């Protein structure tokens, strides 16, 4: 396999695990969401810390904490904490379809942040894509008579998380390790309290003792794969493959979990898919034009 092919394969694997994680959390719906979130945090922290120790990079955590990016990592920890908890709660409370919609909307929310915060210049197709996505939210609000706050919060929190992480000099594994370490004290309090009340599921039986730690692998493993793949493929390719994640979430919610999909969901989803097609086409054209512009510039000089 070529390096780009390896990159695509790694991103597909990462997005497949993220997408199918819906089934993992649904199977553990009897575990309270706060306790499940605590396990996800602690086991991710342990697995990532072990990885950094094996690579001799634990010292980079101290460098990050003492450096100028400490404020950004605190903010990103808060955002990913909100995102992780809400996703777990949504899946275990019968809202997996809406959760999947959130990750479809996420790239478009990111585009809006890019326009407003980073002064990125949108093309017409990207503006239409954002307007279509906004229309989809209005359709859901009108049809269901309630705002799709789960989808919007998931999309907004993850888009804000990506914006905070944008341009950070610290590597992905180091920064994520610090994020989950910052969340770990609260997570440990939750687990200790649950155990003291006789309500904790860890060590209650062999199955849960083995299955709950997998939450760290499900969270951390795909990130490593995605980081590996993203370095080997073009940004537009990475973005397109990422749509596999919410697609698997949606299919799992409908055909495995058995959640119902209303006409309003169908209309909104069609609008979101159209918006993503517009946005992706514009990104693809921009990505293809960049090398040509660079070549043209070098020829003139």
Radius of gyration based on Cα positions: 20 Å
Structural class: mainly alpha
Order of helices and strands: HHHHHHHHHHHHH
Q: State the separation between the terminal residues, measured CA to CA.
A: 37 Å
How many domains make up the coordinates?
1
Strand content: under 5%
Average residue pLDDT: 87
Q: Which quaternary structure do these chains form?
A: single chain
- Share of helix among residues? over 70%
Characterize the biggest β-sheet. Answer: none
Globally, the shape reads globular
Uncertain ranges: 294-301
What is the number of beta strands?
A: 0
Helical element count?
Answer: 13
Describe this structure in words.
With 301 residues, the chain is mainly α. The longest helix has 38 residues, at 263-300. It has helices at residues 3-27, 33-54, 59-66, 70-92, 96-116, 124-144, 149-165, 172-196, 206-211, 214-230, 235-241, 244-257, 263-300. The protein has 13 helices and no strands. Helix 5 (96-116) packs antiparallel against helix 12. The chain is 81% helix and 0% strand. The protein has one domain.
Task: Give a quick summary of the entry.
By secondary structure, this protein is mainly alpha-helical. Helix content is 81%, strand content 0%.
Fold topology:
Blueprint: H1 3-27, H2 33-54, H3 59-66, H4 70-92, H5 96-116, H6 124-144, H7 149-165, H8 172-196, H9 206-211, H10 214-230, H11 235-241, H12 244-257, H13 263-300
Helix pairs in contact: 1-10, 1-12, 2-4, 2-8, 2-10, 3-8, 4-5, 4-7, 4-8, 5-6, 5-7, 5-12, 5-13, 6-13, 11-13
């Amino acid at each position: 396999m070529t390096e780009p092919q390896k990159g695509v394969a790694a991103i597909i694997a990462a997005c497949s695990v993220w997408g199918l994680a819906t089934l993992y959390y649904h199977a553990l719906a009897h575990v309270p969401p706060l306790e499940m979130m605590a396990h996800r945090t602690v086991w991710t922290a342990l697995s990532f810390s072990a990885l950094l120790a094996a690579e001799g990079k634990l010292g980079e955590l101290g460098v990050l904490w003492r450096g100028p990016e400490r404020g950004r990592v605190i903010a990103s920890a808060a955002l990913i904490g909100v995102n992780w908890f809400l996703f777990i709660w949504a899946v275990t409370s019968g809202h997996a379809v809406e959760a999947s919609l959130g990750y479809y909307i996420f790239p478009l929310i990111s585009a809006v942040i890019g326009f407003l915060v980073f002064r990125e210049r949108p093309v017409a197709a990207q503006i239409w894509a954002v307007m279509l996505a906004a229309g989809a939210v209005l359709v859901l609000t009108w049809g269901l008579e309630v705002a799709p706050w789960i989808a919007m919060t998931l999309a907004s929190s993850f888009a804000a998380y990506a914006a905070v992480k944008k341009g950070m000099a610290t590597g992905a594994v180091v920064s994520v390790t610090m994020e989950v370490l910052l969340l770990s004290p609260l997570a440990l309090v939750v687990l200790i309290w649950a155990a003291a009340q006789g309500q904790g599921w860890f060590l209650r039986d062999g199955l849960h003792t083995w299955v709950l730690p997998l939450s760290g692998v499900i969270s951390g493993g795909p990130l490593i794969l995605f980081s590996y793949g993203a370095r080997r493929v073009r940004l537009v390719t990475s973005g397109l493959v990422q749509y596999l994640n919410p697609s698997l979430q949606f299919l799992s919610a409908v055909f495995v979990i058995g959640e119902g999909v209303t006409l309003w969901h169908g209309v909104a989803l069609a609008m979101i898919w159209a918006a993503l097609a517009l946005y992706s086409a514009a990104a693809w054209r921009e990505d293809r034009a960049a090398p040509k512009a660079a070549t043209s510039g070098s020829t003139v000089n």
